[in-house]
Amino acid sequence: MRLQAVLALAVLALATFALFLRWRVTTAGLKITSQFRTPWHNYAVGGVDHSTHLFGLAFDVVPDDETTISILRELGFKTLISEGDHVHAEYF
Predict the structure, then answer these.
(1) How many CA atoms lie within 13 A of 59 on its CB side?
(2) Distance between CA atoms of 27 and 75, rounded to whole angstroms?
(3) pTM for this structure?
(4) DSSP H stretches of helix in the chain
(5) Average pLDDT, whole number, for the chain?
């Protein structure tokens, strides 16, 4: 397979997985305030250069409470950071 085709399939698989994660979070009753970000938006909100938001694999979820954190843990999110007004969640 040509490299371009492999890269296109990888991007498609990543986007599909990100949408699946979004579906799981929203069907659990949680509200997502940020998932996909462009590099420009990520810079404007103070995100790190290598943010997983750029790939749709990080979520900012409200409210920031123990119930939200517990639900995200049950959904398999590995990194959960309480930001005060939201929970930052990463699957990997």
Answers:
(1) 27
(2) 11
(3) 0.84
(4) 3-27, 39-44, 66-74
(5) 94
